[in-house]
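Reopening this one. Same input as before:
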Amino acid sequence: MTQTFTRMDESTAEEWMHIGVESAKAQQEQGETVLLLLRMLSNIVSGFAVDQLTHCLQTATLAERAGADKEVVVASLCHDIGKVVSVPNHGAIAAEILKPYVREDVYFMIKNHQDFQGRHYYHHFGGDPNARDQFAGESWFDLAAQFADDWDQIAFDPDYDTLPLEHFEPLVREVFAQPHSF
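Same output, byte for byte:
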């Protein structure tokens, strides 16, 4: 049943109940939407040795092989998903996509990953390689440093034994199936 109101201030509680049910059904498809966005990263190379999907797959593979939990692995996979829309604020976009599905430290790890990763390259264009220091003392600092230093910044190797997207699909569907808030 499609609702007939054309203005929210003319809607009824019954209509919103129906919309709520339909929205809950649609929630089960969020993982598919994320997987579609991830596949779109295969078209973005931007001068790197691998496309952005491969980079994200390598980052997630490294995280998984290091024993990271499922939220960190999925966030590692999705950390550059915002580049489909905008490179300058891709971390914030990815973090907001992930926010309802991951705990707070994982959200901040992704939101600020660029400044953590900057330790390894900001100096090449006059940026502050110590930009991450502004977050010193935050409860998520060590996780973000591990993500940037051990997984993200080394994930550009065309010869790395990268796990395919199909390996991560069940985990993406699981994490994106049920939102929770922090």
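So the earlier flakiness isn't reproducible anymore. For the record, The domain at 29-175 is CATH 1.10.3210.10 (Hypothetical protein af1432).
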